């Protein structure tokens, strides 16, 4: 891991501390400016930092060795998103506001179409590596990840990243698990509790 990767590990704690401070400031002296600051700190700071980072290092598919001293852009993106994995209720709030969650994923760099229905309890793990068409429905407790980490017999820890895409008119059943590189075609129905894997991901 590079020095940048080690520094990125501190971002979640810093982000949560800044968010708590902004929320306490707003509760102590309610006002539009402090409310805007709290919203910015909680929801907009991490994706904006990621977008600035992506200007130099755009997200891409690929394979990396995590136990080697090489830069891993996925690792940086993962750390910038870690606050929302630690406190999933932050994202659940966005999913009950029409259009808010789709807009937030677009801010991370995902391509999201129109009239997408997100149930509150889902898990999009790689928010910057997911493409969604129009008129897509995501069922309760579905999970989507664009990466997989495996350990080889020689001791190498291998990270594989492949963008996930959902076509137009797709319905994802409750409890479904969608893995790296999966491309769900237009109008497909993914059954309840199904698991879709890209066969070259592991």
Major sheet: size, sense and barrel closure?
A: 4 strands, parallel
Evaluate the radius of gyration. 18 Å
Shape designation: globular
Major sheet: arrangement of strands: 2-5-10-13
Annotated CATH topology: UDP N-Acetylglucosamine Acyltransferase, domain 1
Beta-strand percent range: 15-25%
Order of H and E elements: HHHEHHHEEEEEEEEEEEEEE
Report the CATH C-level class: Mainly Beta
Say how many strands there are. 15
CATH architecture group name: 3 Solenoid
Helix content: 25-40%
**Mean pLDDT over all positions:** 92
Secondary-structure-derived class = alpha/beta
Give me the number of helical elements: 6
Termini gap: 21 Å
Tally of structural domains: 1
Ranges where pLDDT stays below 50 over 5 or more residues in a row are none
Structure overview:
The protein has 202 residues and is an alpha/beta fold. The chain has one domain (3-196): UDP N-Acetylglucosamine Acyltransferase, domain 1 (3 Solenoid). The chain is built from 6 helices and 15 strands. It has helices at 3-8, 11-28, 32-56, 73-86, 89-95, 100-108; strands at 62-65, 111-112, 117-118, 123-124, 130-132, 137-138, 143-144, 147-151, 157-161, 164-166, 171-172, 177-178, 183-184, 189-190, 195-196. The longest helix has 25 residues, at 32-56. The model has no long low-confidence stretch (mean pLDDT 92).
């Amino acid at each position: 891991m590079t020095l940048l990767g080690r520094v990125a590990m501190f971002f979640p704690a810093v982000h949560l501390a800044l968010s708590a401070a902004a929320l306490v400031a707003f509760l102590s002296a309610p006002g539009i400016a402090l409310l805007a600051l709290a919203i910015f700190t909680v929801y907009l700071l991490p994706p904006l930092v990621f977008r600035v980072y992506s200007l130099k290092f755009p997200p891409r598919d690929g394979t990396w060795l995590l136990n080697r001293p090489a830069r891993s852009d996925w690792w940086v993106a993962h750390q910038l998103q870690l606050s929302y994995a630690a406190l999933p209720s932050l994202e659940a709030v966005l999913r009950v506001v029409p259009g808010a969650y789709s807009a937030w994923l677009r801010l991370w760099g995902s391509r999201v179409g129109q009239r997408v229905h997100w149930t509150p309890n889902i898990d999009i793990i790689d928010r910057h590596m997911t493409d969604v068409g129009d008129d897509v429905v995501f069922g309760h407790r579905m999970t989507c990840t664009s990466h997989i980490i495996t350990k080889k017999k020689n001791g190498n820890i291998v990270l594989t990243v492949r963008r996930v895409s959902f076509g137009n008119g797709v319905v994802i059943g409750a409890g479904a698990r969608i893995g790296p590189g999966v491309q769900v075609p237009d109008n497909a129905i993914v059954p309840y509790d199904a698991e879709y894997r890209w066969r070259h991901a592991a």
